[in-house]
# Entry
Amino acid sequence: MAYKDEKLDEEKVFKDPVHRYVHVRDQVIWDLIGTPEFQRLRRVRQLGTTYLTFHGAEHSRFNHSLGVYEIVRRILLNFEGRPDWNNDERLLCLCAALLHDLGHGPFSHSFEKVFKLDHEDFTKKIILGDTHVNEILKRVDLEFPQKVADVINKTYEDKLVVSLISSQIDADRMDYLQRDAYFTGVSYGHFDMERILRVMRPVEDQVVIKESGMHAVEDYIMSRYQMYWQVYFHPVTRSAEVILSKILHRAKHLYEQNYKFDFEPTHFISFFEGDVNLEDYLRLDESVVLFYFQMWADEKDSIISDLCVRFTNRQLFKYVEFNPNLQMKEWMELYSLFRDVGMDPEYYLVVDSSSDLPYDFYRPGEEEERLPIHLLMPNQDLRELSRESDIVEAISGKKRTDHKLYFPLDFVEALPDDSEAKARILEILNS
Ligand code: NI
# Structure
C-alpha cells in the first residue's frame, strides 16, 4: 500500500481539553507528530508572555497545532462526497493544518520584530529543508512538501484548500479562540463550533456558511473581537513584551560593543549577526531563552540585569494612555527628564501601539485585503456576511488603535523626594 494511504492498525487519540479528543488514523500524520521539529512546539507557548497576565495561559503551539488538525479533520468528514470537494486533497489539508505554525520561534512576536525574522519563512524552511518533517512528506511524493508549503503560504492553486487553513473563519482561528479562552479562563471566546462545522459547505473555491448558521458565525466574530481586546492586547501582557524586546535589544547592543558577558550569549550570536540558519533557529526555544534571562540577571551591565530580573520576577512596567502623535511636547520633555535622572529612555520609556480590525470584507487594492465570509442563501446565492448581519455590519472595517506609554514607576518613585525631575515626571504621567 502507498505510504499516503497507510492507516494505523488502531486509531490513536490525544485527550484534548477543548475538542475532547484528537483522532489520528493516518500513518503520515502520526509520523509527523513524532518528529523533533514538531515536538519542539511543546516548548513554545501559544500566547508568548500572556502567562504573566493570565497564569493559566501556559499552553503550547503543540496543543494548538493538534487542535487545528482535528478541526480540519472534522470539516473534511462533512465535506466528503459533496460535489465541489475533491477528497484527494484530504491528506494535504491535514498536513498543512498540523504544520501551519511549525516555524514559530520563542516569544515570536518580539523576536520577529527585534531580529527582523518571519516565522512563515521558517515554516517553509522546515518543510522544504533537510529535516525529519521533510523526509516524511517526501515519502508521500516528491512534490508533496512543496504543496504543503504552498497551502500554508496561501499560494496553492486550489483556493478552497487554502481557505480551510487561512481565511476569516478558518480552522486556525476557531481553534485558538476557544483554546486561548479555555486556558486563560476568560468567559469570552466561546462559540458553537459544532454548529459552524455542520453548516460549512465547499462552494467552488471557498468555504461558505449556510444561512441558517449565521447567528453561530456572529458569535464567533464577536468572540474574536472580545478576545483581541481582553486577552491578546492586554496592556499587562504588552508590558512584559516591551521588557522582553528591550532585553533582546540590550543583549544585541552589548554584543556589538564587545561587552564581556559573564554568561556568553552563544545561542543568540547568529540572531545578533542577522545570519540565522535553520539549526540555530530550532535550538532556541522558550526554555533556552528563559534560562539565559536568569543567567543575565547577574550581569554587570545594570540595564540588562535589571530587565532580566523584572521579566523573571514579573516586576513589569506601569503604563498610561499616551499618543505620541498628539503629545509630542510631553514625550520630548519626558525623554530628556528620564535621561537627566539616569534612566536610559531607550529602555525605560516605551510607547507601544496595538490595533485590530474585527471583521472586514474585501476591498480591492487595500493593503490588507481580506476575503469575506459568504453565506449560502436558500436559493443558492452567496451573500457577504455583513450585508445580512446587523451585528457584523456594526463592527465591519472598524479599526481600533490603542497607544500606551510604558515605564518603571518604581524607579521614578525611588528618586529623592526633593527632586524637581521626579515631581515633573509624575505630573506629566498623571495628566
Ligand atoms: Ni495557528
Summary: The two ends are 73 Å apart (CA to CA). The chain has a mean pLDDT of 94.
